Amino acid sequence: MSTEEIKEMYDRQAGEGTEFVKNNKEYHKKYCKALADIINRYNPQTVCEAGVGEATTLKGIQEYIYRYTWLFGFDISPERLKYAQKNLPYAIFDISDMLDIDYQDDCFDVVYTSHSIEPNQGKEKEILKELYRITKKYLILLEPIYEYASPEGKKRMEKLGYITNLLDAVENYKVVESHLFEHCINKLNPTGLIVICKKS
After folding, report:
1. What are 104-131's pLDDT values in tens digits?
2. Each residue of 33-62: b (16+ CB within 10 Å) or e?
3. Using CB atoms within 10 A as the burial measure, which of 14, 156, 166, 174 is most buried?
4. How far apart are CA 112 and CA 92, in angstroms?
5. Which pLDDT does position 8 carry in this prediction?
6. Beta-carbon neighbour count of residue 19 at 10 Å?
7. CB atoms within 10 A of CB 94
8. Contact 72/65 with Cβ under 8 angstroms?
9. In the chain, which ranges are E strands?
10. Residue 35: pLDDT above 70?
11. Mean of pLDDT over the chain
């Protein structure tokens, strides 16, 4: 999908993320707690979610982060960001495209994604380059991993235009952790965890 197509799709879906959390509270709590536990290892002062959507994940992790942390997020969809501001009013949000992120280099201690690279098949390397650029210490990716999917799941990912090349795309980075994430709501779209350390 093109950037404009992704923006239009997410604008139409605005509100669905907030509704999903209401209907899946226990799963969402476990997912966010597990992500927060990973973030806590790195004691960040600043955390940014790339493709923050309605800030449901960012809101979910904030109660589990041990220290006072500045929270940021950006998304391509202004309609979803309206929900984000309501869901988490004290975070700082901006409109930005992951292929051309409007932040300076080394801007945030930890940058993470939660299925936001997902619809960008074929653009994995370009997006990783931008996410890595704005990361100061660690980049945490929670994204579907094609290699972990069943044959049925792989066909589904290909048909939907989901990423299929993320493991290859991270080969030239300092990957400190890479495996199947413990929480995944759709087995046909398995969530992988990849943690990249920013080289000094």
Report:
1. 999 999 999 999 999 999 999 999 999 9
2. ebbbebbbeeebebbbbbbbbbbbbbbbbb
3. 166
4. 15
5. 78
6. 12
7. 14
8. no
9. 46-50, 70-75, 92-95, 108-114, 135-144, 174-180, 191-197
10. yes
11. 93
Give residue 69's identity as a one-letter amino acid code: T
Question: Integer distance in angstroms from the first to the last C-alpha of the chain?
Answer: 34
Supply φ then ψ for residue 176, to 5 degrees.
-105, -10
Give the mean pLDDT of 54-66.
93
Task: Report the candidate in 78, 147, 82, 84 with the shortest Cα–Cα distance to residue 114.
Answer: 84
pTM: 0.93
The helices-and-strands tally (H runs, E runs) of the chain is 8, 7
Q: How confident is the model at residue 59 (pLDDT cuts 50, 70, 90)?
A: very high
How much is the pLDDT for 190? 94
The amino acid occupying position 180 is L
**Which amino acid is present at 39?**
I
